[in-house]
Amino acid sequence: MAEEKKRSADPAVLQLLEKCDSCEGLPSTMWDRHDAMQPQCRFGELGICCTLCFQGPCRINPTGKEPQRGICGAADYTIVSRNLLRRIAAGTAAHSDHGRHIAHTLHALIEGKTDAYSIKSEEKLKSVAKKVGISTEGKDTMQLAKEVVDLALEDFSRQDENVPLTWLRTIVTPERMEILTRCDVVPYNIDAMVTETMHRTHIGVDADPVPLIFNGVKCAMADLAGEAISTDLSDILFGVPKMTVTEANLGVLKEDQINLAMHGHNPVLSEVIADMTEEMEEEAKAAGATGINIVGVCCTGNELLSRRGIPLATNFASQEAVIMTGAVDAMIVDYQCVMPSLGMWAQCFHTKLISTSNLCRQQGDVHIEFNPTTAKQDAKRIIRLAIEAYKNRKPADIEIPQYKETIVVGFSVEQIEEILKKQSDDPYQYIVDTLKDGKIKGFAVMAGCNNIKVCHDESHIILADEFLKNDIMILATGCAAGALVRSGFTSSKATQEKAGEGLKEFLTTLGKGIGHDDPLPPVWHMGSCVDNSRIQSFMTTLANKMGVDIKDLPIVASAPEDMSEKATVIGTWLIATGWPVHVGIFPFIHGSPLVVQIAEHTARDVYGGFFLFETDPHEASRRLINIIKHRRWKLGIDADPEHIYPNGLTAADLFEEAGPPKADTANGGK
Predict the structure, then answer these.
(1) CB of 450 within 8 A of CB of 420?
(2) C-alpha 647, offset from chain centre
(3) Which fold does the domain 76-238 belong to in CATH?
(4) Is-contact 86 197, C-beta < 8 A?
(5) Which CATH number fits domain 405-667: 3.10.270.10, 3.40.50.10710, 3.40.50.2030, 3.30.479.30?
(6) What is the 3-state secondary structure (H, E, C) of 121-149?
(7) Are strands 366-367 and 312-314 parallel, antiparallel or unpaired?
(8) Three state DSSP letters for 150-179
């Protein structure tokens, strides 16, 4: 049992893992497969294994012994840099392709090719048009939408290398745009950046780590634009998230209802399924159920949670556990973060695994290709498959852990501004004043994935606890947000029990301002992983209000369980826009001392942001909090350089304390 407790911080997940351990014939879990993989390849962990041509695989010896170079002559820094760039390109492709799919759906609506959608936020349409320089005067909704979506698609196809991406220049400060331009990392075309990055890393092309890594930064800036396009167009189509009360964790599944689990990252189908369930209720009741229950998994779940208040069942690492309950009649997947193991688990139960994108087929799936023009019909077919599966349920298989949290979500930038306007006509000045009077010391972004190398969700919880008791407000997205909602951090109770006195006072005041008896939660759920663009937009506006750049703000970001290529690219554009970024799982770069030096030190000199690699969440929180303290001192908020902090340091000491340590690269940076 002691060993089992280290698997996850979520008792619902632990309950189902115990069930799995006691049953013969069930597939292996993610935890089992990780254990069976040990020991993992040390060369791969250090990033010094190259398979870019068929002369290899080549590996470089990190001890200084031969071989020192690959067969083609590539050194450790070339191999590590190329591998890193390919991960950045893959992450950019994933996020931006998501944005393109939203744009195509909006385009189909404008052309009258689909009746499944409508423009749910004309106000957001107008604000986006204004932001990107499109006049709204005398234009009807569809005409304006066409101009916006055409400009968005132009960011994927522009051929003039001297024109920056529209959605990039509108989401960074003027000072930041100057820095990016000076460093020649301003992209003009999202697709071109992915292509150039893959070309540059081909055998026999770029071998110099400096231009390679700067190219990776340029590709990451294209990713930021792609994320912003996705968020803006999704808000136009599906509505801007508003604060809502709902629930999270596996207890949101209902034994007496048909359970649909929506999994992946793209909301275009899940939104229509949510609409169609109302029309299908009678068919569900005719099959013996009391109704239809939709729950979310991963970022499709976060999209539904943010806009509709549809409960979130779980995040990435525990997606198999949703099927393990025996109560899910259909798991509907679109793409990204969908484990290939789901097919094995679905075959052990009555669950239908339904794939909806030709990008993401699964063994044993039922494939219903989603098309905006047939969206309603597709949604009904999917729901009917779930209704039929429900008839084959085996009561003995059903075990729904009775764990769930009441949560408050839906903190879009627009919703935050609306809340703040109850306190001041100038909402961002109100934030500035609150920072200056110390009620909140700064902001921490918690983002990223789950990684089975550490206890599931535990690092997220430890970091969040430390931030809150130090009066640091948390903005969360993606699977990190999934961990925090299931652990009770997005509730008034969390504010009362976990927040420092200043933060508690701030959140209580905001709650009263909108007519609530209780304070607002101390963690603001801002959406899926592409919605990190919301956070960037919020902080850019705050920086402009203060007359500084993001690199000067008392803010940090943390991905304590980073796992995917998307996390790599998000971290890259965060440091390039001035954020200190904590990474809790060592990325595959520590085989090159030079690349580590660039990530931890050179990046800070050039961009003001940098990576902080630290596996211990307690140590990470200490260093991140010191970074916020140091930035407050530099801004003149905490002006006394002799002030003694609880750890015995003066404000002037915090620069070295907050900065990255010398990495022991011969030992993988550990």
Answers:
(1) no
(2) 32
(3) Substrate Binding Domain Of Dnak; Chain:A; Domain 2 (1.20.1270)
(4) yes
(5) 3.40.50.2030
(6) CHHHHHHHHHHCCCCCCCCCHHHHHHHHH
(7) unpaired
(8) HHHHHCCCCCCCCCCCHHHHCCCCHHHHHH
Distances 625 to 48, 465, 469, 654 between C-alpha atoms, Å: 33, 12, 11, 10
What pLDDT does 150 receive?
A: 98
* Residue among 322, 309, 348 nearest 263 (CA): 322
The rounded radius of gyration (Å) of the Cα atoms in the chain is: 24
Count CB-CB contacts under 10 A for residue 422: 15
> What confidence score (pLDDT) does residue 667 get?
34
Does residue 174 register a pLDDT over 90? yes
User: For tokens 């499709």, what's the residue?
Assistant: 300
For residues 476 and 557, give the distance between their C-alpha atoms in angstroms, rounded to a whole number: 10
Q: What average pLDDT score do residues 411-430 get?
A: 98
- Tokens coding 423: 């306190």
131-164: pLDDT as tens digits: 999 999 999 999 999 999 999 999 999 999 999 9
The residue among 652, 665, 569, 649 whose CA lies nearest residue 613 is 665
Q: By three-state DSSP, how is residue 364 classified?
A: coil
DSSP notation for 293-315: EEEEEHHHHHHHHHHH-PPEEE-
**Cα 364 to Cα 386: distance, rounded to the nearest angstrom:** 15
Of 3.40.50.720, 3.40.50.2030, 3.90.980.10, 3.40.50.2000, which CATH number belongs to 250-397? Answer: 3.40.50.2030
What gap in Å lies between CA 441 and CA 456, rounded to an integer? 28
Q: Number of H helices and number of E strands within the chain?
A: 28, 16
Contact 185, 214 (CB under 8 A): yes
In a 13 Å sphere around the CA of 509, the CA atoms on its Cβ side amount to: 16
pTM above 0.85, yes or no: yes
Res 652 pLDDT > 70: no
**What CA–CA distance (Å, rounded) separates 234 from 267?**
8
Q: Residue 26 has what pLDDT?
A: 87
